[in-house]
Amino acid sequence: MAPSLSDPAFAATVHARLQALARTQGPDRPLFYNLGDETGIADLAAPWDYDTSPASLAAFRAWLRGQYPDLDALNRQWATTFPDWDAVTPELTDDAMRRTDQNFSAWADFKAWMDVSFANAIHASTGALHAADPAALSAIEGAQVPGWGGYDYGRLASTVDVMEIYDTGNALQLAHAFNPALIPLSTAFASGPREVHRAWRDLLRGGRGMVVWDEAGDVIGPDGAAGPRGQFLQSLVSSLRAVSPALLAAVPAPSAVAVLYSQASFRTRWMLDMQPKGAAWSDRDSERENDDNAWRAARRQAVTHLQELGITPRWLTSATLEGGALQDQALRVVILPHAIALSDTEIAELRAFAARGGTVLADTEPGVFDAHSRRRTALPLAGVATMPQSVRPDGDPVGPDGMLAVLKAAGVAPPIQVLGPDGAVASGVDVHVYANGGVTILALQASQPWSAPPRLTVRLPTPATVRDLRRAGPPVQGNAMDVVLDGIEPTVLALSPDALPGPVLDGGTLRFDGPSPAAVHAMRLEWRDAAGAILRSGVMRVPADGVALPGVPGTATLGIADPLSGRTVLLPLP
Prior knowledge:
Elements: H1 8-25, E1 33-37, H2 54-67, H3 71-78, H4 93-97, H5 105-132, E2 138-143, H6 153-156, E3 162-165, H7 171-178, E4 183-188, H8 193-204, E5 210-212, H9 228-248, E6 251-252, E7 257-261, H10 263-274, H11 294-308, E8 314-317, H12 318-322, E9 333-336, H13 344-355, E10 359-362, E11 385-386, H14 399-409, E12 417-419, E13 429-436, E14 439-446, E15 455-468, E16 476-484, E17 491-496, E18 503-506, E19 509-512, E20 520-528, E21 534-543, E22 547-548, E23 557-562, E24 567-572
Parallel strand pairs: 1-2, 2-3, 3-4, 4-5, 7-8, 7-9, 9-10, 10-11
Antiparallel strand pairs: 6-13, 12-15, 13-14, 14-17, 15-16, 15-17, 18-19, 19-22, 20-21, 20-23, 23-24
């Protein structure tokens, strides 16, 4: 198959082209270099048996030597009799479908290798760009649903600087969690309330910008003026920018709950689902692979209930679980969404976590297959993993209250309670809790348009000064408050021990008019000349001890807007 992702000659050609682009276009400072739009192995996220070229098979065998101690171990696992490494070939999907022993190792290992190969190719291209221009940003656009096509987000998230993502299957949350430095983007295709909801949802989940698709020409007209959709987007972006500095200066509140993302379980689940269909598996194109399955549904349900409780989980991959991530004493619970395929090391780490008092939650019996998709003869986590009804996608879920009960039994309490009119945990509400030093940012949004009750009660663990970052008005004091939630746009609150100080200019240093419990205030600054024209603008992060301002020749006034404190000032400059 040509070109092969493992062909060094082809890679050299690609890298030379990227470096030439970076050298010629670098002076114009492009936002990023797109390595591919809706890229993937073969047909996007379709499950094709690519790449069996000589270069790929040679690299596959080299990779296998790092997965098995010797050839005998591989033959035992695969139930094969290869006489030497050069003879090793994978089992392709048609042959795997015909197996009756539920040992899919020779097929699953090849699929795992292709995820590695795809990630390696993207990462190497990023490296080529950075070598030509260290300031360049590499990207892929149209990132697909977690699954086939190289979309193992545990590997892929760290291969680029920027990723435009179709947010299905928790893709945005996974990419942002596995690479906090990533700049995730989404694409705006429409206008109206649902587009407003999507834009806010993406920002609250870690999105950092949007690409505007103007197929109909209604964003910018031939005369360069904003069209109807352009005017809509202008208003939307203005509302996002008013609060985004405060959100981006904070980080998700620490969590005692971890969730495992198991790509091996995806492969195994897919084979079990498709095997009864036989050769019809090849009828599944990329679009049909977006269909739900138990692996995606279990993860979505668990994360939805955690979100309703204001808990942003720590995401684990199989590699980080094997590497000892559960040894963090702050973790109390690990959730295994449809984790039917686990390695021996993962099993050992989970057992050790439970022995230390941690709680292992599962929605189905975990680890019935090993990490190579071979069925085990015994249940490795029997008596260790509990399977409460509230996290079972095939049962009768009892909603966020059920998840709350499970977590409380494990010694985990949500940082903030958001209750509906009936006094129960509000369903259909995304509750985001962020930390900025001693300041908490609380954002509430209907998880789907108009899905949440309009009136909510927020209960805090201790009394706080509460200021609405999106609506003018004085802060209020207390540990409980009523919130009227819009069906589309979020409510964003800043919670602090006392009223937050505002910005002042001390000589050439931007400071505060009092002590701030926040680690940093992100302020929007505008330098203007005597006629009021903007000379320079941007967002500056101001720490507690202040920051020196750059001099901008010709500046007459400096406008400062601090979303966190709600203060806006216009200062004359000499």
